[in-house]
Specification:
The chain has 4 helices and 9 strands. With 188 residues, the protein is α+β, with helices and mostly antiparallel strands.
Length: 188
């Protein structure tokens, strides 16, 4: 029974990862993917404990530990990605913009500045419709960076565009994005 539950969790996690990598679709909410991952990790530990006398359980545990150790070797970058992507540590800000959209500022690397994502809610799933990085902002002022924004305000939406304001408490930045391509059409 435990093996069947673990196989279902493994398939769900694999499907979730594949859907995000290929189609930018994930489970609804920032924490849903994290909870699924930690359920899988917990299931992995339960499987190793339940089947400890089997050789494949020992090999599986060895593979998991080896993978964790090997991820720390190249300056720890894959390890930090794993930590930031599977815990709330990668989330800088999350805000519901409207009943159809939410925005989040995330960073999954110690080497890359955080970026803005706008996500469309579609029932139990959601789809990332755009990403914006600091390099796309056409502003040379150091304080006008995505990581420095204090709030994200939904301004308006048309059939092909979405307009947001990055609130800084001083000079704010109004961004109009093309929903099809995710590119910035206008910046004020």
């Amino acid at each position: 029974m435990i093996l069947k539950i673990y196989l279902v969790l493994s398939l769900l996690l694999a499907a979730d990862i594949a859907a995000y990598v290929f189609y930018k679709i994930s489970l609804r909410g920032y924490y849903a993917d994290i909870i699924l991952f930690w359920l899988w990790i917990s299931g992995s530990i339960a499987i190793v404990i339940a089947f400890w006398k089997k050789l494949w359980a020992k090999l599986f545990l060895g593979t998991m530990i080896s993978g964790l150790i090997l991820s720390m070797l190249p300056m720890g970058l894959p390890f930090y990605f794993l930590v930031f992507a599977t815990t709330p540590a990668g989330l800088w800000m999350s805000k519901d913009l409207s009943k159809d959209y939410r925005a989040q500022i995330v960073s999954y690397s110690v080497m890359v500045p955080p970026w803005l994502q706008v996500i469309q809610k579609t029932g139990p799933f959601e789809k990332e419709i755009l990403q914006c990085r600091d390099s796309q902002l056409q502003n040379d002022q150091m304080e006008v960076r995505i990581r420095n924004s204090k709030d994200i305000i939904f301004e308006k939406e048309t059939d092909s565009t979405i307009t947001l304001t990055l609130f800084y408490g001083g000079p704010n930045t109004i961004l109009t994005f093309d929903k099809a391509t995710g590119k910035i059409l206008d910046q004020q």
